[in-house]
Design a protein that fits this description.
By secondary structure, the chain is of the alpha/beta class. The chain has two domains: 190 residues, 3-Layer(aba) Sandwich (Isopropylmalate Dehydrogenase), CATH 3.40.718.10; 116 residues, Isopropylmalate Dehydrogenase, CATH 3.40.718.10. 37% of the residues lie in helices and 15% in strands. It has twelve helices and twelve strands. It has a twelve-stranded mixed β-sheet with strand order 3-4-2-1-5-12-11-6-7-10-8-9, with helices on both faces. A hairpin with a 4-residue loop joins strand 11 and strand 12. Helix 1 crosses helix 2 and helix 8 crosses helix 9. The model has no long low-confidence stretch (mean pLDDT 93).
């Protein structure tokens, strides 16, 4: 019996005018993407390689299944279906570091192509380079970021999208968010017992993917000192504590609500495996403060593995060959671990 052909990681190029193509080029040159296919424009990747001073050829693939036949030393790039050579070339003529609808649409197309391929079993996982939210909006996307877009793409027409959560992880912290890309006032209004409980369930199930069947999950409070018994807000009493109690009744090792100004320090010192935070910046500031170089964004709850670097498009340095690929490399490594 002939062994099944190995499946590649699919790495989207991100916004073609940001640092995504450059960090992809650098990671490839460092030998960290030997099992990957880039979803994007060959011309954009050639420009990125040149910007980084890397002398490597680019191989244009007709589909991701051809990645094993890539010439030695060449970066395999798969343009999404329907992209013409002219469109690929035009993307590489746009100015670096600008918000452009064309760039946002290109990023959207690459994400959709990668998701369809991985859900069809043609790839192991998706690793997404950074996108620019304004460019996505300019292209007409109804989704504010990767997380919401991937959630929508994971559902068949007419089906309810699966509940997903964002996790940001580095070697010292794993943080899962209850709410993501919402204005702070709206995020607080969106909190509910069911939403917090669902987050705990998703985090608990996902931990099996990295080898923790019973992770110790600390739930951060929303208010100073976790509300101080209702003196500084009652969300802990009304919403967070009841959700924790329900999770514990299901066998989930959840505790809290903990004071949000100390729980991350305690987790970093080994008291907890995962911290659940109520809002985007509450949870991500501590992780990013430790350095974006090893940070990885993982979307939990999808029917496939998706990881991403812990940083944005960095338009201010795009095209200058200065971008650090460490977070993308860490994202690819995480994707491999979660699909091993």
């Amino acid at each position: 019996m002939t062994a099944a052909a190995p499946r590649p990681l699919l790495v989207t190029m991100g916004d073609p005018l940001g640092i995504g193509p450059e960090i992809v080029a650098k990671a490839f040159a460092a030998g960290e993407l030997d099992d990957a296919v880039v979803v994007g424009s060959p011309a954009v990747l050639r420009r990125a390689l040149a910007a980084c001073g890397i002398a490597r050829p680019v191989a244009t693939l007709s589909d991701p299944d051809a990645w094993g036949r890539t010439p030695p030393g060449a970066l395999p790039v798969w343009p999404p279906s329907g992209w013409t050579a002219g469109r690929c070339d035009a993307l590489a003529t746009l100015p670096w570091g600008e918000v452009r609808a064309e760039a946002g649409q290109a990023a959207l197309d690459c994400i959709e192509a990668a998701v369809l391929a991985v859900m069809a079993g043609r790839a192991r996982a998706v690793v997404t380079a950074p996108v620019h939210k304004e460019a996505l909006s300019a292209a007409g996307s109804p989704h504010p970021g990767h997380t919401e877009m991937l959630q929508a793409l994971a559902a068949s027409p007419g089906e309810t999208p699966p509940p997903v959560r964002m996790m940001l992880a580095n070697p010292e912290l794993k943080v899962v968010l209850v709410t993501v890309h919402l204005a702070l006032r709206r995020a607080i209004e969106a909190l509910s017992i069911e939403g917090i409980l669902q987050t705990l369930r998703i985090a608990h199930r996902a931990a099996a993917g990295w080898g923790q069947a019973t992770p110790r999950i600390a739930v951060a409070g929303l208010n100073p000192h976790a509300g101080e018994g209702g003196l500084f807000g009652d969300e802990e009493i009304r919403l967070i504590a009841p959700a924790i109690a329900l999770a514990c009744a299901e066998g989930i090792d959840a505790s809290g609500p903990h004071a949000p100004d100390t729980v991350f320090m305690r987790a970093r010192r080994g008291a907890f495996d995962i911290v659940v935070a109520m809002t985007h910046d509450h949870g991500l500031i501590p992780v990013k403060y430790l350095g974006v170089e090893q940070g990885v964004n993982v979307t939990l709850g999808l029917p496939f593995v998706r990881t991403s670097p812990d940083h944005g498009t960095a338009f201010d340095i795009a095209g200058r060959g200065l971008a650090d690929p460490a977070s993308l490399i860490a994202a690819a490594q995480m994707a491999r671990r979660l699909t091993a």
